[in-house]
Design brief:
209 residues, alpha+beta, Dna Ligase, domain 1, five-stranded antiparallel β-sheet, 5 helices, 5 strands, globular
């Protein structure tokens, strides 16, 4: 059974078919990611940015629910077209796969949407030329709340309180009750869908409708 399934899952099936119980080892979530294939009408820099922010909102809104803080943020954009005339770093675009990828640290672990959005803006500062066709946003190297120090500076405290208030309004009414103007045209894009490999958690914010 292990050879047939290519791993330990075969052993589980062997036991399940005989009515035996199995106990999985506890696991910890390592990342929260959202990927989206852009429709033809969104394959331009302006619309792609809006969808990227929309995807970030989805990922960041789940952090408080999961009680996690992200230490890193990454952005990946698939591009159609040549790299000539790129405005970004010469190494920012993979010439083989034509993807524009980069990441940045979120010092100490961050959970509030506004701070994480600032990080995404920095990663999007100089996009290379090309037609965007796909994008992904990932929050990773997650820390539990017990491992994170509360913000010390007043501006960080205000930003965190603002994000908490936005989360409360969204939870009380509907996702994206309050949002930044940059996603106004993209708020109905990048909706949650049922994945092939996992069952969606309907308790998470902005989940499958």
């Amino acid at each position: 059974m292990e050879r047939a399934w290519g791993g330990v899952l075969g052993r589980y099936w062997y036991r399940w078919l005989r009515g035996q119980e199995t106990h999985s080892r506890p696991t910890r979530r390592r990342s929260i990611a959202h990927q989206h294939v852009l429709p033809p009408d969104a394959r331009n820099e302006h619309a792609a940015w809006g969808v990227a922010v929309r995807s970030l909102y989805k990922a960041a809104s789940r952090m408080p629910h999961l009680n996690d803080f992200a230490q890193k943020l990454s952005r990946s954009v698939g591009l159609i077209g040549q790299r000539h005339g790129a405005l970004g770093s010469p190494d920012a675009l993979d010439p083989k796969n034509k993807t524009w990828t980069d990441s940045r640290n979120l010092e100490g672990g961050k959970q509030d949407t506004m701070t994480i959005l600032t990080g995404l803006q920095e990663l999007w500062a100089k996009p290379p030329k090309g037609t965007p066709s796909f994008l992904g946003v990932t929050l990773y190297e997650l820390l539990p709340a017990t491992s994170v120090t509360a913000p010390l500076f007043p501006q960080d405290q205000r930003r965190e309180k603002l994000s908490q208030l936005i989360d409360q309004l969204d939870a009380a009414h509907a996702p994206l009750t309050v949002y930044t103007a940059s996603i106004h045209e993209s708020r109905d894009k990048a909706r949650a869908e049922i994945a092939f490999r996992s069952v969606p958690d309907l308790n998470l914010p902005d989940s499958v409708r």
